[in-house]
Amino acid sequence: METKEKIVAGVAEASGEVVIKIKGLCKSFGDNQVLKGFNMELRKGENLVVMGKSGSGKSVMIKCLVGLMSPDSGYVEVLGKDINNLDQIALDELRSDIGFLFQGSALYDSMTVRENLEFPMRRHRKKFEGITDTLPLVREALENVGLAHTMDLMPSELSGGMKRRVALARAIILKPKLILYDEPTSGLDPITSKEIIELMRSIQKKYGTSALIITHDVDCARVISERMILLVDGTNYAEGTYAELVTSQDPNVNAFFKK
Ligand SMILES: Nc1ncnc2c1ncn2[C@@H]1O[C@H](COP(=O)(O)OP(=O)(O)OP(=O)(O)O)[C@@H](O)[C@H]1O
């Protein structure tokens, strides 16, 4: 018997342009049905947090979102484009409007901070056509995260928190319309996590970017999210604001908020 409670508790109808639309997303690996009809909508300027326990399919969902994995069925639209009907060139162009912040920062160890930031600019040359001097853009991105003085340092000379900030600067150098954050605070101490969350907020304010944030960090979700989706058993188990979900009587929802 279906016992799951769907909570779509009084979420204020977000208005404006839809930046991500996922409908009925299904993905299996052999007998392992990971996503079983997942739905999601992210609106312009919104911060949406998706929480799900380890192995629940968050990374699979992100991979389907950026065309790194094909769904078995379902519709995925990003910035108005149907992902499953794009050729490689169109997909690359779309990705130039998306910033990524991966778990663990993922900086290139053999490159300086500046070279790390220039890397996505080289990859998406078309977006930067006519720009011969990359320095002002690198400086601006680093200033946004308070690290302009680290431009010529190597990643090994940075602390974990600094690396995460540089990774954030690299995510915003493309002036993306959308940022995908995968566990942005993982492995950081509480104070550094707070700094990263504050930077995420200030970037959203400054550039009006929309953000999809995958996190286990309840404090991060509380501070950053306008809306949350709890992914359980391959589908949207619960959806609402932090305040709505944290006071839910559903034990499966409560489990997410226990520290
Ligand atoms: N390429 C693949 N081939 C086979 N199985 C896969 C593949 N990618 C993911 N899976 C399976 O899909 C399930 C969901 O994995 P996924 O990485 O999306 O979880 P997650 O929610 O991101 O977990 P975590 O929070 O630990 O990062 C897991 O059971 C995983 O083994």
Automatic annotation (TrEMBL):
Q: Which SMART domains match?
A: AAA
Q: Cite the GO molecular-function annotations of the record.
A: ATP binding; ATP hydrolysis activity
Name the domain of life.
Bacteria
Q: Name one Pfam family in it.
A: ABC_tran
Under the heading SUPFAM superfamilies, the entry gives: P-loop containing nucleoside triphosphate hydrolases (SSF52540)
Q: Which UniProt keywords are listed?
A: ATP-binding, Nucleotide-binding, Transport
Tell me the ranges covered by the ABC transporter domain, including all copies: 20-258
Q: Which PANTHER family match?
A: PROTEIN TRIGALACTOSYLDIACYLGLYCEROL 3, CHLOROPLASTIC
Name recorded for this polypeptide: ATP-binding cassette domain-containing protein
